[in-house]
């Protein structure tokens, strides 16, 4: 039996830490119709209903590093648990000054809000950095309709440029389901 590919070990460790909830997650700065906030214990409730976030379409990319060099920013890992989604974004470390955020919408881009991602780890061997983010459904007003899905894309701002990862034009999707 041969040892695992050493270049994949940091990726596996990062995803495992994300799944165990041990990553330091930054402040969630989202406020779409007062439906989202940074409290991981809250869930979307309207008349006693609770909702879960589910990502049915995301799979972690393979051969990640060449893709990061080409696109500058990529969603590396996405994990959902109950009413929360946790993600890891990997970026090309082409400049010390960089800003990573998640742009999301609940109404097909009629309006949107941005969540700042927090720097998590530097990978000097492949000259990349990882950032983490969290999306949490919170209590909604009784008159607010619950979204059926949340679309999002990721942006890296560096050197007066913007680089986007929008799932090759399809956006990343979080479906919202009523918890039964």
TrEMBL record:
Record GO terms (molecular function): glycogen binding; protein phosphatase 1 binding
Residue stretches making up the CBM21 domain: 65-175
GO-annotated biological processes: regulation of glycogen biosynthetic process
Pfam families, per database record: CBM_21 (PF03370)
Annotated Gene Ontology cellular component terms: protein phosphatase type 1 complex
Coiled-coil positions: none
Superkingdom per UniProt: Eukaryota
Entry-linked InterPro entries: CBM21_dom, CBM21_dom_sf, PP1_regulatory_subunit_3
PANTHER family in alphabetical order: GLYCOGEN-BINDING SUBUNIT 76A, PROTEIN PHOSPHATASE 1 REGULATORY SUBUNIT
Name of the molecule in the record: CBM21 domain-containing protein
Species per Swiss-Prot/TrEMBL record: Rotaria magnacalcarata
């Amino acid at each position: 039996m041969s040892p695992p590919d050493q270049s994949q070990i940091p990726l596996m460790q990062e995803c495992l830490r994300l799944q165990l909830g041990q990553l330091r997650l930054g402040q969630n700065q989202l406020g779409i119709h007062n439906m989202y906030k940074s409290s991981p214990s809250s869930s979307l409730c309207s008349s006693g209903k609770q909702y879960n976030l589910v990502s049915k379409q995301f799979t972690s990319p393979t051969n990640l590093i060449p893709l990061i060099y080409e696109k500058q920013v990529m969603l590396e890992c996405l994990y959902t648990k109950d009413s929360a989604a946790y993600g890891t974004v990997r970026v090309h470390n082409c400049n010390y000054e960089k800003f990573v955020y998640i742009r999301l919408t609940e109404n097909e881009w009629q309006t949107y809000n941005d969540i700042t991602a927090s720097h998590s780890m530097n990978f000097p061997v492949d000259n990349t950095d990882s950032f983490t983010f969290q999306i949490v459904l919170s209590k909604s007003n009784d008159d607010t309709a619950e979204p059926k899905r949340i679309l999002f894309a990721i942006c890296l701002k560096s050197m007066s440029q913007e680089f986007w990862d929008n799932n090759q034009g399809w956006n990343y999707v979080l479906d919202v389901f009523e918890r039964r």
